[in-house]
Amino acid sequence: MSESGVIRAAGEWVVAGPAAVEARRQPGMRQRALFLDRDGVINVDHGYVHTAEMTEWVPGIFELCKVALDVGLALVVVTNQAGIGRGYYDDGQFRDYARWVHAQFMQRGLPILATYYCPEHPEAVIPAYRNDSGYRKPQPGMLLDAARDWNLDLGASLLVGDQPSDIEAARRAHVGRAFLMGEDRWEDVAAWMRTMSSRGRDHAPL
What we know:
Helices cover about 35% and strands about 15% of the residues. The protein is an alpha/beta fold. The protein has one domain (about 5-200): HAD superfamily/HAD-like (Rossmann fold). Strands 1-2-5-4-3-6-7 form a 7-stranded mixed β-sheet, sandwiched between helices. It is globular, with a radius of gyration of 16 Å. The N and C termini lie far apart (about 35 Å).
């Protein structure tokens, strides 16, 4: 990890969160995770949100994350960020915003482990980001790298997204369960997490 808190490896973009320090203190412990898409799940999708002023929290997100932490799941954000590749904001602005989001969650006692983001897009205006990326959902790269970086048990984890591409990424990464906003309710996700916790591990298919 660089001094800025950004990890880069083979096209990977990560901003470590407040929970990262504790996770590194327990390197041998395998964790379960709640993977969260960002726009449409954490914040209302107003289109390329990247500032505090643009941010409107999705109702219920903080309560859901509290349930996840209560049953022992780490919080990991996985988000496509084509706005970087399209030139609407740059990598540094996004990282600053991600840290602001981390701080907002931390103020509510909800430490985020890390935010994984992919600025690449086949039609990006910035050549460095004009790629048919293996990290951009529905490809599973961000999920697979998160599992590697933090010793996460993907089969015992879950993902909440608002697009079919989120669900497909979870399927390709063999995440234990995926929920689609609009079809599933927060209550359904919370109930599944509690059931998963009581069983120790749930192998229900996606």
